[in-house]
Amino acid sequence: MKNLGNGTTSRFISLSLLLMITVGLSACATRPPADDLFAVAAFEEANDPLEPLNRVLFKTDQVLDAALVRPIVNGYRTVVPDRGRQSVNNFMNNIRAPITLVHDVLQGEMSRARTTLGRIVVNTTMGFFGFFDVGEQIGLPYHSEDFGQTMATWGASEGPYVYVPLLGPSNFRDGFGFMVDAFVVDPVGWYLGNPRNNLEWAQWTSFGMLFITTKDATMDATDELNASSLDYYSALRSAYRQIRASEIRNGAVAPMDDFDEFDDMSAVTVAPTRQSASISPEMPDTLLRSN
Amino acid sequence: MALRFTALILLAFVALTPFSSAQAQDPAAFIGEFSQKGISDILAADIPGDEKQKRFRAMFDQYFDIPYIGRFVLGRYGRLTSDEQKEKFGTLFEDVIVQTWSRRFSEYNGQTLKVNSTVTDGDTGAIVKSHIVGNDGTNIAVDWRLRERESGYQVVDVIVEGVSMAITYRQEYSTVITRGGGFDGLLDEMQKQVAAQ
Question: Which of A157, A168, B73, B150 is the most buried (most CB within 10 A)?
Answer without folding.
Answer: B73
